[in-house]
């Protein structure tokens, strides 16, 4: 794997590092030959013996400079290590995490299967909403399963957060539909019962509604949008649940 390029934050520090190292190497390469050459002369040795305090002072000054240079290099090394650690932490934080599949709880398994049994695609509430409901007339037999579902499942939740999000969307859509029916449907004055003796509810049409037929059509369109959300949320709930191992 190719080495990761240095981030821009590294480059100023590297330039700071190059200067002290270069100066230290130049100092050593220059001073060592001079010292060897100087000590090889008898006159210089006599001069050095005579001016010992001065040489000692200069030597101490040079030693202090070297100590300062080493301390400077150590501080630069600390900066480099801190930058490298920060870059590594940032890289780990930005990499997508792969979570192992979570084992579904028994409650999630039971509730998920119960919803599938209550909402099959080929019978019951789903096909009624998908085709039979016209947002104008319906019987108590049609609306009771929706109302009962909302009453029973209100406050329910899934332990799996992903499934819970899908369930909340589905439940909210069904609840919106029951609210629409309760707010806009009334007992049909022309036909209070259907062939099975159930009460019949209807929405007041444009002739008897304030705003006329445009208001009536707008109201029915709202019901159609809610029904579409219910159907899509039901499909999404099963799809998400299957993906999460339910």
Q: Provide the gyration radius in Å.
A: 42 Å
Question: Strand order of the main beta sheet, please?
Answer: 1-3-2
Bin the strand percentage.
under 5%
Pattern of helices and strands: HHHHHEHHEEH
Report on the structure:
A 3-stranded antiparallel β-sheet has the order 1-3-2. With 246 residues, the protein is mainly α. It starts with 9 loop residues before the first helix and ends with a helix. Helix 1 (10-39) packs antiparallel against helix 3 (52-94), helix 6 (140-153) crosses helix 7 (161-184) and helix 7 packs antiparallel against helix 8. The chain folds into 2 domains: 10-94; 106-243, no CATH class. The protein has helices at 10-39, 42-50, 52-94, 106-118, 125-132, 140-153, 161-184, 212-243; strands spanning 137-139, 185-187, 200-203. The protein is rod-shaped, with a radius of gyration of 42 Å.
TL;DR?
With 246 residues, the protein is mainly alpha-helical.
Secondary-structure topology with pairs:
Layout: H1 10-39, H2 42-50, H3 52-94, H4 106-118, H5 125-132, E1 137-139, H6 140-153, H7 161-184, E2 185-187, E3 200-203, H8 212-243
Antiparallel strand pairs: 1-3, 2-3
């Amino acid at each position: 794997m190719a080495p990761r390029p240095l981030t821009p934050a590294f480059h100023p520090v590297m330039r700071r590092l190059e200067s002290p190292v270069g100066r230290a190497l130049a100092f050593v390469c220059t001073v060592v030959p001079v010292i060897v050459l100087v000590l090889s002369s008898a006159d210089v040795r006599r001069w050095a013996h005579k001016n010992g305090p001065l040489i000692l002072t200069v030597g101490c000054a040079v030693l202090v400079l070297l100590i300062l240079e080493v301390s400077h290099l150590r501080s630069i090394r600390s900066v480099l290590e801190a930058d490298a650690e920060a870059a590594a932490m940032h890289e780990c934080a930005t990499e997508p995490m792969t979570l192992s599949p979570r084992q579904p709880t028994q409650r999630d398994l039971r509730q998920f299967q119960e919803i599938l049994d209550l909402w099959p695609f080929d019978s019951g509430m789903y096909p009624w909403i998908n085709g039979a409901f016209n947002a104008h007339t319906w019987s108590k037999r049609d609306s009771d399963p929706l109302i009962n579902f909302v009453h029973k499942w209100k406050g329910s939740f899934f332990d799996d957060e992903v499934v819970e999000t899908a369930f909340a969307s589905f439940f909210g859509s069904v609840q919106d539909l029951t609210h629409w029916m309760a707010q806009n449907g009334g007992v049909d004055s022309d036909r209070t019962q259907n062939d099975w003796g159930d009460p019949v509810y209807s929405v007041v049409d444009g002739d008897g509604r304030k705003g006329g037929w445009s208001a009536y059509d707008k109201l029915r369109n709202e019901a159609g949008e809610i029904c579409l959300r219910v159907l899509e949320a039901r499909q999404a709930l099963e799809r998400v649940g299957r993906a999460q191992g339910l």
